[in-house]
Amino acid sequence: MVRTLSAITLTTLSNQFVSVPAHLTMSKDDTRDFEATFPDIIHDLTNAVKSYQTPEAAEWYGKALQYNLPRGKKTRGLLTVLTYKNLVKPEERSPENLKLANYLGWCIEMVQCFFIMFDDIMDNSTTRRGQLCWHKLEDVGLIAINDALMIESGIYALLRKHFRHLDCYIDLIELFTEATFITTSGQALDVLNASKNVSEFTIDKYDTVVRNKTSYYTFYFPVAAALHLAGVKDPEVFRECKIILLEMGHFFQVQDDFLDCYGNPDITGKLGTDIQDNKCSWLAVMCMQRANAAQKALMAECYGQNDPDKVSRIKQLYEELNIADIYAKYEEESYNLIKEHIQRSSRGIPQEIFIHILNKIHHRDA
User: Fold this and answer.
1) Measured between alpha carbons, how far is 332 from 339 in angstroms, rounded to an integer?
2) Which contiguous run of DSSP H or E holds residue 134?
3) For residue 226, which of 236, 237, 211 has the smallest C-alpha distance?
4) Mean pLDDT value across residues 268-280
5) pLDDT per position as a tens digit, 150-203
6) How confident is the model at residue 292 (pLDDT cuts 50, 70, 90)?
């Protein structure tokens, strides 16, 4: 019988979590302030569309934003605000500056939003964040492609309206366009790999996809945006941040791959389909590294097939090869390695922010 996440004993580190000062965590007030900015986002964007004499399009756009944008944990947006608040001096945390940080966080959430809308269409996914995918709604369908494009375009409308007067405006525009280009390149590689035989999956291919599709925009992107807003100019600060945050991104994606197979859909908010979709996942790569000839033949026969029996056989093979235990060991080693890199860092944003991020994702179940 294939184990669920709750039945797997994950590693408990001897040192547990590194403590984080209270001022480095998001309070309920911080989260409430962030969410309170959302109606302003809707207002600005729908008014922008109305200015083109397209009121029906504005109404539809508002529905698409309301359905897709405020869902989820808002990790990237909140990370932007948290990082900014801890980079600037207390006297610089004016209501106006904090509102800009919240707007910037929502712009980053919009990047996440249009990415997953496209991703769900390409993967033909059914659910996302505990509800039907936007394109699966009866009155939506493939107009969801245009909706995702409108959400992407809205990012630059917001940046132009609220950040054009700042010295960091061009840096932010370049960061957002680079993050989009890097991430879509990673997405392209992910889709191309999914058309290959599982025997071609390697850890190098996996690492390249993760670095470009997930790590950059999930971890480095929000922090880099906050650095720009806070007026940081030293390129060495950005370089050191990127090294550590890309390591965290790899850790995060391996967790995602594990949860796709072993997670509880009621908690993760989606049904795992990596096996059926022939994804070059960490679990598949670990399996192929350890499988004997007969087990590799089974992978070749069953992996990437939308057949419940074949999916079950793959999961049983993962059990035979103790992939869950390998993951638990990876989790411990990665946590300690990243923590060591953080503690060795001498430049950039305060170490405590990195520790906060690492603790937030460690042992997550969604």
Assistant:
1) 11
2) none
3) 237
4) 87
5) 999 999 999 999 999 999 999 999 999 999 999 999 999 998 998 999 999 999
6) very high
Chain centre to alpha carbon of residue 257? 12
128 is catalytic: yes
Distances (CA, A) of 8 to 16, 234, 266, 331: 18, 44, 17, 13
Q: Please identify which of the residues 74, 76, 128, 270 carries the catalytic annotation.
A: 128
Report the alpha-carbon distance of residue 286 to residue 65 in Å, rounded. 38
**Crossing angle of helices 203-210 and 235-262, rounded to 10°:** 120
Q: Which of 190, 260, 274, 277 is catalytic?
A: 190
309 is catalytic: no
The model's pLDDT over 77-134, given as tens digits with 9 standing for 90+, comes to 999 999 999 888 889 999 999 999 999 999 999 999 999 999 899 888 888 888 999 9
The question of whether 360 is a catalytic residue gets the answer no
**Quick one: average pLDDT of 255-280?**
88
Selected catalytic residue, list 74, 85, 120, 123? 123
d(CA 338, CA 344): 10
Active-site option among 114, 176, 219, 354: 114
User: Is 119 a known active-site residue?
Assistant: yes
Question: Are 227 and 334 contacting, i.e. CB atoms less than 8 angstroms apart?
Answer: no
Reported as half-sphere exposure (CB side, CA atoms, 13 A), residue 162 has a value of: 24
pTM for this prediction: 0.85
Considering the candidates 252, 258, 270, 274, report the single residue annotated as catalytic: 252
CA distance linking residue 49 with residue 120, whole number of Å: 25
List Cα–Cα distances, 158 to 47, 81, 100, in angstroms. Answer: 11, 16, 10
Helix (H) or strand (E) holding 353: helix 351-361
Active site residue 274: no
Residue 366: per-residue pLDDT: 67
Among 256, 260, 274, 277, which one carries the catalytic annotation? 256
Q: What is the mean pLDDT of residues 316-330?
A: 96
Angle, helices 203-210 vs 282-290, to 10°: value is 170
Catalytic site includes residue 139:
no
Clarify whether 73 is annotated catalytic: yes
Mean pLDDT of 296-316: 96
Q: What is the average pLDDT score of the chain?
A: 89
Active site residue 33: no
Catalytic residue list contains 252: yes
